[in-house]
Amino acid sequence: MKLDKNSLAAKLAMIVFALAFAAITAFKPLLLGVLAGAVIVAIKAGIGCRYGAVGKRAAFVLAMVYLVTAIILSHFLELIIPSISHLLSQTVLFHAAISLLLIFAGYETIKRIQCGFDISNKTFLAMAIPCPVCFGATLISCYFIAEALRISGIAVGLLVGAIIAAGIILLSLQKKENPERLGKIMILLGVYYIFGMLLIPAVIQGMSFKYSFPESFSPYSLLLLFILALGALKGVKKYA
């Protein structure tokens, strides 16, 4: 059943999701890092499946791969944390390589489509398959959720992996789009990865601190809640 984005149910769902997101983020700010990292990975892989010429079974298998990957990373999280700064510093090279791969794959996809050939069932892999950058984002999400909820082991991986897998499946179930758009998205994502390399030093520095947040509301939490509520209201008005 297709849900109309202009229906009352869709608007209410948007409001509930926005308020739940705002409340969780206000009480546990580290969960914002969890959601950000997991959602970015899910969007990257999910859009690749949505715009590429792939079936539902392939998208489901890919989602399970990401789920298992998150569980494995969380299992070895305590062993990886001491050297995480060194590992993240190495992702600069991976960012450069993957950005070039995405730009090249996007260009080839657009070029072949204009010539009457659809190769999106191959080039979508540049976005969909787990890459070192995805591993890094998943690892950071596992770290944040372990710090925020004080849990460890497989439970961390299940939570992060479930967010990623659900995002991939939901995006892949959407109406298939023109593969030429996949090429444009890959080029834009490649450029984004290039700019993302500039943020890695800040992430490394941030990971070197021990996070500790109060359980109760603070003025900063209230300010964050207010800003997110305004964003939700703006989104509802946009689709009204």
From TrEMBL:
The lineage's top-level taxon is Archaea
Which residues are listed as membrane-spanning? 7-24, 30-47, 59-81, 87-104, 124-146, 152-173, 185-205, 217-236
- Which Pfam families does the protein's record reference? DUF2162
Keyword Membrane listed? The answer is: yes
Key words of the record:
Membrane, Transmembrane, Transmembrane helix
Sorted alphabetically, which InterPro entries does this protein's record hold?
A: UCP037409_transporter
Its name, as the record gives it, is DUF2162 domain-containing protein
To which species is this protein native?
Answer: Archaeoglobus fulgidus
